[in-house]
């Protein structure tokens, strides 16, 4: 595949181009999502382009399901790309072409070392407590010395003297001695390219100007630059990219974020934690990047404010409580109908989206997740006889049922089934009994919802509607009447 067939070619001179390049061997994890976000924001802030590359060269571990989940997660977060995804596996021919260019120009060489020879070399290095590196045994040898038809790999001739320095946009100036990098493989003996070669060729052909990725890739930068500079010597149009290596995300204990810290995939935060995309977007933005004391930042504000100079050099710590609190803010800000549809999907076929929309203003007041919204709305669709929590059942003792029996008679006469009308009637009944409203509200809540927590009791009465509310109260009041007859 020729380089001019890649979408990044033909970009405007001087235009910023970033890329997100996940491997489809699993879900879109939190660290990857933040990398995608930073690439997206940097490109959008600078009026550039952001591209998506699926690095699926590991055919055994790459799956279509993982590809679908990654793209779905990015879309859910609101991250759009300026071209269709590029699949690295489609470009093996182009990768091999570059390897052979390097070979022909003397920047690479054929290595005929057998697996047994390489293992013996490593054993010697282990015994001498030396770094395990290829010893360049075929770097200056004539390929004719190898047996006829012997398999070989193509290795890069990495400079052996001096040092390479990168002015990283996040980490600052980093220098590595060239002799610390071995002559690594570009093309395997079966003709397939290695990750190190494929990444460099794809970044060039896509026109990538800024490589923003996790700081676990810093060493890769020093291995990839020699390819770029060798190809620049050959063709003259392979500029160094700007590197920005972002610190990794750590868990609350300071260790690298992993499954043991809880959910790590974007879809898990959506489904299991009940997080809204704008909340996760905002939280990931603030995870390692800051703008003064601002915590709540909209997508539009983020595009306006984001730049690499705001990214910290130290690892950020993931705090689920902060995410939950931020999510609560976005739930309160969210459109009621949108929330109702999310909750309806969680509840299932029995859910009524119109009723949920009506209930949402009171349901979302204290909720920190869409799961809490679904739990809080469950009473609306419960069937009689209501299942009772243990605490709710304890509230409905004989005295409470007696109170509900009297209240039921008054509510059956109620013509004004509004919050104001129901509150006036209930307060009047409580006053005649010499009770505070709370003494009456708690058994009412238990009878109406089967729980001890709910929206305001008069909201509950209105949302359930006259017939269902009275039926639920009467179901408990009848128990009191039956006890009298006995």
Automatic annotation (TrEMBL):
Q: Tell me one GO biological process term.
A: glutamyl-tRNA aminoacylation
This enzyme catalyses:
tRNA(Glu) + L-glutamate + ATP = L-glutamyl-tRNA(Glu) + AMP + diphosphate
| UniProt short sequence motif 'HIGH' region, positions renumbered to this chain | 22-32
State the GO CC annotations. Answer: cytosol
Subcellular localization, per the record?
Answer: Cytoplasm
* Assembly with partners or alone: Monomer.
The Swiss-Prot or TrEMBL record describes its family as follows: Belongs to the class-I aminoacyl-tRNA synthetase family. Glutamate--tRNA ligase type 1 subfamily.
What is the name attached to this protein's record? Glutamate--tRNA ligase
The gene it comes from is gltX
């Amino acid at each position: 595949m020729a380089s001019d067939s890649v979408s990044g070619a033909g970009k405007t001179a001087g235009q910023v181009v970033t890329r997100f390049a996940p491997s489809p061997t699993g879900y879109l994890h939190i660290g990857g999502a933040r990398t995608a976000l930073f690439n997206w924001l940097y490109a959008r802030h600078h009026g550039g382009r952001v591209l998506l590359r699926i690095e699926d060269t590991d055919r055994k571990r790459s799956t279509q399901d993982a590809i679908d989940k990654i793209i779905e997660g990015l879309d859910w977060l609101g991250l759009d790309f300026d071209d269709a995804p590029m699949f690295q596996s489609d470009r093996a021919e182009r990768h091999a072409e570059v390897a052979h260019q390097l070979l022909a120009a003397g920047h690479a060489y054929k290595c005929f070392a057998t697996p047994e020879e390489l293992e013996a070399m490593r054993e010697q290095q282990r015994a001498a407590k030396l770094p395990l590196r290829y010893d360049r045994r075929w770097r200056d040898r004539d390929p004719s010395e190898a047996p006829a038809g012997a398999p070989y790999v193509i290795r890069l001739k990495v400079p052996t003297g001096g040092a390479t320095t990168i002015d990283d946009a996040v980490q600052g100036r980093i220098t590595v001695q060239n002799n610390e990098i071995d002559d690594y493989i570009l093309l395997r003996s079966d003709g397939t390219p290695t990750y190190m070669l494929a990444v460099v060729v794809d970044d060039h052909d896509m026109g990538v100007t800024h490589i923003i990725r996790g700081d676990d890739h810093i060493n890769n930068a020093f291995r990839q630059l020699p390819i770029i500079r060798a190809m620049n010597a050959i063709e003259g149009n392979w500029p160094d990219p700007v590197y920005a290596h972002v610190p990794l995300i750590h868990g609350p204990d300071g260790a690298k974020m992993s499954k043991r810290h809880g959910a790590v995939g974007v879809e898990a935060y959506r489904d299991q934690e009940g997080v809204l995309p704008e909340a996760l977007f905002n939280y990931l933005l603030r995870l390692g990047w800051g703008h003064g004391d601002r915590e709540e930042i909209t997508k539009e504000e983020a595009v306006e404010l984001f730049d690499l100079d705001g990214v910290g050099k130290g690892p950020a710590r993931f705090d689920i409580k902060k995410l939950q609190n931020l999510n609560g803010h976005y739930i309160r800000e969210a459109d009621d109908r949108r929330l109702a549809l999310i909750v309806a999907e969680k509840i299932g076929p029995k859910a009524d989206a119109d009723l949920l929309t009506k209930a949402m203003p009171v349901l979302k007041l204290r909720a920190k997740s869409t799961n809490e919204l679904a739990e809080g709305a469950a009473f609306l669709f419960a069937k009689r006889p209501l299942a009772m929590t243990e605490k709710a059942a304890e509230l409905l003792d004989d005295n409470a049922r007696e109170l509900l029996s009297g209240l039921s008679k008054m509510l059956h006469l109620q013509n004004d089934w509004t919050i104001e009308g129901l509150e006036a009637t209930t307060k009047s009944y409580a006053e005649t009994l010499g009770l505070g409203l709370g003494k009456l509200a708690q058994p009412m809540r238990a009878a109406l919802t089967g729980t001890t927590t709910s929206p305001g009791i008069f909201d509950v009465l209105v949302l359930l509607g006259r017939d269902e509310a009275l039926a639920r109260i009467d179901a408990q009041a009848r128990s009191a009447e039956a006890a009298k007859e006995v």
